[in-house]
Amino acid sequence: MSSKISISALLYILFLSCNGIKEKPIPVVSNYASTENLIEAEELLSIFKDENIKIVDFRNPESYNNGRIHRSLNIWRTDISDNSYPYPGMRSDKENIELLFGKIGISNEDLIVVYDDKGSADASRLWCLLKNYDFESIKILNGGLKSWESIGGKLSIETFAYPPSHFYLPKERSEKLWINKNELIGLIKDEKKNIIIIDSRSYEEYSGNQIKKGASKGGRIPKSIHIDWAEAVDMNGSKKFRSIEELQKIYKDLEMNAKDTVIVYCHTGYRSSLTTFVLRELMGFENVWNYDGSWVEWSYFDELPYEKDSIIL
């Protein structure tokens, strides 16, 4: 896999050079397949006062109110969830996302920079949601709030609001980032289709020994391979994404080809959004889908197969 990823990175560099594209220097050297959707704190600081930069703090309101990047807007999980399902965490529909963004003053001309304080798992969910509708102007702040503070960025509790705007999402992309339950079932039943299913939860959840709130039972989707989402992030330090060399070591045992079909899931699609970002953007895999319903949906349906350590049903 290492050689394939190195080639992807080289092609990306050649693409930029041949097209005369000069990206703004970032004081971090990277061999990622792409850093187009990633922004460092130093660069954010340099463009911070641009009126078309909208910074989104993706944390719960209490954390947001205790201190955030100045002028950042608060969006939380409940704001982008569809509560009509009998299980939690399903993504909201296109129309409600458009209404929310217009209400808080985000327009289509804006560049959205999203951050959290949990290693970018929540921020990745918003990235995944918007990218699925072909909205390209969104970047994840590498390291989140910690990286901002590490360069001397100040936090604010000042109340700030933008005037309402008009916001719309393009149509859902043909090569979407999400997969639903029925599509996943179809792939699993297709014996000619070779798919890799990654469970990005903790090992306790994967084994079935821990049942988090919202799940109907413990366990995992059959043939899932466990790789904890947090392994891709320096959780005990900078909270930034790990280097390409470290990421290659984490995923090397899967022996994935760049064009393999990869399905990622977690509990409610948040942690798996980060793994989706890592595999697609940083490592260059082309066919990575995030299973939106994840374990809370799969576990709800008794007729769907599942596995547990020492017990297979």
Fold blueprint:
Layout: H1 2-18, E1 38-39, H2 41-47, E2 53-57, H3 61-65, E3 68-69, E4 73-74, H4 94-104, E5 111-115, H5 121-132, E6 138-141, H6 144-150, E7 155-156, E8 178-179, H7 181-189, E9 195-199, H8 203-207, E10 225-226, H9 244-251, E11 261-265, H10 271-282, E12 287-291, H11 294-298, E13 307-308, E14 311-312
What is the level-2 CATH architecture name of the largest domain? 3-Layer(aba) Sandwich
Unreliable parts: 1-29
* CATH homolog superfamily of the largest domain: Rhodanese-like domain
Oligomer: single chain
Number of helices: 11
Overall form: globular
Q: How many structural domains?
A: 2
Sketch the major β-sheet: 5 strands, parallel
User: How many distinct beta strands?
Assistant: 14
User: Which structural class is indicated by helix and strand composition?
Assistant: alpha/beta
Summarize the amount of helix as a percent range: 25-40%
Tell me the Rg in angstroms.
19 Å
Quick one: CATH class of the largest domain? Alpha Beta
CATH topology of the largest domain: the name is: Oxidized Rhodanese, domain 1
* Lateral arrangement of strands in the main beta sheet: 1-6-5-2-4
The helix/strand series, from N terminus to C terminus, equals HEHEHEEHEHEHEEHEHEHEHEHEE
Strand content: 5-15%
